[in-house]
Every structure is written in C-alpha cells, then in structure tokens.
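Our consortium's second objective concerns turning raw sequence data into structural hypotheses that experimental partners can test. To show how far this objective has progressed, the report includes one record in full. It was chosen at random from the queue rather than selected for favorable results. The single chain below, 238 residues long, was entered without modification.
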Amino acid sequence: MTTTIRRLPVVTARVTGALTGVLATVLLAGCGTPDPANQAASPSPAVPAAASPAATSEAATEAPLTAGPDETGADETGADETGAADQSGGRNAADVTFARQMIPHHLQALEMARLAETRAGDPWVREFAAKVATARDTDMRTFRDWLDMWGAEPLPRDHAMPGTQTRAEIEALAKLNGPQFDRKYVTLMIEHDNGAIKLARAEQAEGAFEGAKALAVATTTALGAEVKELKKYRALLD
C-alpha cells in the first residue's frame, strides 16, 4: 500500500532558490551587470530564458559533454602550477576545475529528478525533485558561460566525483517505483548533495574568481539546507 507523507513543510523553494538568488552577484562579478528588473532569478545574459524547467533540464542533459585534454580537472587556460590567478580573467585552476566538475555533477541530479517525475510515490518527492531540477539547470547555465569564457570543457558525464552515483546505481534506481523509489532517491540525494558541498568548499578555499566563489558559498548553504530537509523526510519513512 502506498503511503503518502505530506506533513513535512516544503521549504525547498526557499532552499534551492538560494542558488538562483545569488546569480545577480555571480553574474555581476563574472558576466556583466544583470537586468535589474529580473535580478533575482534571471539566467546568464548569454543564454535565453527557457520555455519551462522541464524543457531546459532535458536540453541540458542531452547536451554532449566532452572532456578537455586533461580529465584531471587541471586548468589549461593560463594558470601556473601553483594555481595563481590569471590576471586577464581573475581565475585560477581551482575555479576552472570547480566549473568543469559541477556541470556533470548537476546533470546527474537532473537525471534523478526526471526519474522522480514518473516513479515517485509521494507528491512531496516529486515536488522536491522538480525544484532541484530548476535550481541545478540555472546554475549549469552560469558554469557553461564561465567555461566558454575560459576556453575549457566540462568533465565527462559519468566522471567519478564526491557524491556521484555509478551508472549501475542510477539504473537500479530507475527500476524502482512508489515508496521504494522514494526511499532510495532521498538516500542518494543526501549523498549527492554532500558531495557537491565538498566540491564547493574546495572552491571557497582555493578559488580566485569572485563569481565562482560566491556561487560556491551559495551552494554550500542551499545544499546543506536540502540535506537537512531530506534527512527529516527520511526519518518519517523509518
């Protein structure tokens, strides 16, 4: 019998929205002054607004990702071996690595969110996944703009990173439905978010590009709140 749990307050709109809200600062630092009329949630000026979150998520996931010449994430666009900031762009190797990692990391979150659309048993899980997809899609637009500016490419889609699942784990999730899917999805998302937080903290400690560092701070804050929310929901399942 499917158990619907809806008592948990849905604060994800505020939580995941923190990533979108920081874009005004990020874009001011890295890509020019945003439109004041749509400062809080507009994507990078280099990318037109999408028709819908579902359409942008699908387009982002289907976009081909090719590894750069160095798949270790090292910056090949001018930073020296010490990671000193490049004077022309104000970025260093850590900034490029952060952007290269976060695109495939977010793509996996989008993939799991799409599974939740049709397989989740609890409406709360579907709502949570939809909000995650919107926030990650917006961030990926910013990361792609930075990589274009720096002449770098994202890491491969299934590149192993903190918090990412293997292809076998994603395929196993896709075979579940209802409460079984809900529990597994929540568990994997806790791991996934914690991994993204680890990458963001590395950027905060080692990066030089102000836009990337600002987005890393927002990521740490917003995903930390997501993890707390997910853990509360999982406790209701136990």
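The partners drew two points from this record. Residues 101-238 form a domain with the Ferritin fold (CATH 1.20.1260.10). Confidence is low (pLDDT under 50) at residues 1-88. Both points have been shared with the crystallography group to help prioritize constructs.
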